[in-house]
Amino acid sequence: MPQDRATAAELLAGVRAFLRQEALPQLQGASAYRCRVAANILAIVGRELDQGAAADRAERDGLEHLLGKRAAPELSPEAALDALNAELCAGIRSGALDGRRAAVLAHVRETVRAKLAIANPAYPALKD
C-alpha cells in the first residue's frame, strides 16, 4: 500500500543495489555467494510484484478458455488457479485434451514464458 515514498519495488531495488554494489565487493567465498543469492531473490520478488498479477490473470484466462469453463467464484485467486491447473493435468492424463494438443502446448508455453520472465528474464529460451 504505497501511502508514502518509497514503494515496495523501490525499497527492494535499493536493498538489491546495496547488496550488489557495496556489500558483495567486500565479501568472499560462501558469504559472497549468499549475498548474490539474496540479491537475486530480491530481484525475483520485485519482478513478482511487477508482473505476477498479470501473469496469473493471463494463465487463468488461458485455462478458462482452454477448459471451456470459469473458475469457481468462491475460491481465492490462488485456489482457483490451482483447481484449473489440476483440471488441465487431469485432462492431459486422461487424453480428454488430445484433440486440443496445439492449444494446450501454446498455453503451457506462454505460462512457462511468463514464469521464466519473473524467475530469470535472462534465461536463454526467452530470447526466441
What are the SSEs and their pairings?
Layout: H1 8-23, H2 29-67, H3 77-94, H4 101-119
Helix pairs in contact: 1-2, 2-3, 2-4
Structural class assignment: mainly alpha
Strand portion:
under 5%
Outline, from the CA principal axes? elongated
Q: Total strand count, please? A: 0
- The number of domains is 1
Average pLDDT level: 93
- One letter per element, helices H and strands E, the order comes to HHHH
Biggest sheet record = none
Number of helices: 4
What low-confidence regions span 5 or more consecutive residues with pLDDT below 50? none
How would you concisely characterize the structure shown here?
The protein has 128 residues and is mainly alpha-helical. It has helices spanning 8-23, 29-67, 77-94, 101-119. Helix content is 72%, strand content 0%.
Tell me what you see in this structure:
The protein has one domain (8-127). It has 4 helices and no strands. The chain is mostly helical and 128 residues long. The protein has helices spanning 8-23, 29-67, 77-94, 101-119. 72% of the residues lie in helices and 0% in strands.
